[in-house]
Amino acid sequence: MEELRNLTNREFYSILSKPDNEFEDFIIKLNILPKKTQICVCGGKMNLRQRGTRGVTYRCTSKNCRKERGRKKNSFFEGSNLCYKDIFELSYLWSHNQASMENVTRCLRKSDGSEPSTKTVVDWKNFFRDICKIYFDKHPIVIGGPGIEVQIDETVVTKRKYHRGRMPATEWWFFGGIEPSSGRAFMLPVQARNRDTLFPLIRRHIAPGSIISSDGWAAYATLGELPEGYVHKTVIHSENFVDPVTGTHTQSIESVWQKFKERHKHEYGTARTLMEQYMIEFLWRREFKEDPFYHLWNQICQKYNFNNNEEDE
Ligand SMILES: [Zn+2]
């Protein structure tokens, strides 16, 4: 996977312009696609062959078996009607936040004028988001550490369904934290804002020994008594944005909320699942902004785990 680290645009497109066969070898070497021979359940060797409309499949070379298997089975490419290069390019555009429908259509349009359907593109963007979610489920973001400042806060996102004043607005509460020194952040949807809800999240996402600043919300009052040894500082929002005595403030977390809501306002509706998907994408982009394309494929590899470098018997 190191081949994908810190690629420049030109390096990426020079990989993409390899002849199809060489490109396939390249992604096999990355462990993104299974290698060209496989071992059958019978122990025989399986080779690739062209199978008309079904495309390329593996077939067992053992005379009494002849079992077949899909070329892309168990890989991230399984079930797709896009070619490897299109998916690779789409993943590049998506990871660099350039996957608007207009841009994707322009980049993936073939010389005969054909282009992927809107549904196909939307599906793939969802597959990339699924990868982000699976990654975070396994590797929750942990910020802070001994002596490191973390700011926490809750916020609410409200949406009026029909732009009519009388309809009750839909409300979602979120809780989150940021490490201002690095900009790393976590956030989660919450059903309530009491101590029983918030403390387990704090202990899961903030490392022991952190210096936590928060507003004066009562649920935080005993934060300094947790076994994690947090140092708790409070700032009263309405009175002073920056506490003149301790210098404690929560400006960084406010700016995370602002960015989150800003984009959400334009692109997303009121469905809870969409809101949570968007939140995960938002966090993933923050966490991996240094090299998103590399991290995306590295995480895909962790989920679709086959080892092309194992020697055949
Ligand atoms: Zn076989």
What does this 3D model show about the protein?
There is one protein chain. The protein is of the alpha+beta class and 313 residues long. The protein has a domain at 149-270: Nucleotidyltransferase, domain 5 (2-Layer Sandwich), CATH 3.30.420. It has helices at residues 9-16, 20-29, 84-95, 101-108, 118-138, 195-205, 251-267, 272-287, 292-303; strands at residues 38-39, 45-50, 56-60, 68-70, 149-159, 170-179, 184-190, 211-214, 231-234. Strands 7-6-5-8-9 form a five-stranded mixed beta sheet, with helices on both faces. Strands 1-2-3-4 form a four-stranded antiparallel beta sheet, with no helix packed on it. Strand 1 (38-39) and strand 2 form a beta hairpin. Helix 3 crosses helix 5, helix 5 (118-138) crosses helix 8 (272-287) and helix 5 packs across helix 9 (292-303). The longest helix has 21 residues, at 118-138. The radius of gyration is 24 Å and the shape is elongated. Bound molecules: zinc ion. Zinc ion binds next to loops. InterPro entries: IS1016-like_transposase, Tnp_ISXO2-like. This is ISXO2-like transposase domain-containing protein. Residues 142-287 form the ISXO2-like transposase domain.
Indicate the topology:
Blueprint: H1 9-16, H2 20-29, E1 38-39, E2 45-50, E3 56-60, E4 68-70, H3 84-95, H4 101-108, H5 118-138, E5 149-159, E6 170-179, E7 184-190, H6 195-205, E8 211-214, E9 231-234, H7 251-267, H8 272-287, H9 292-303
Parallel strand pairs: 5-8, 8-9
Antiparallel strand pairs: 1-2, 2-3, 3-4, 5-6, 6-7
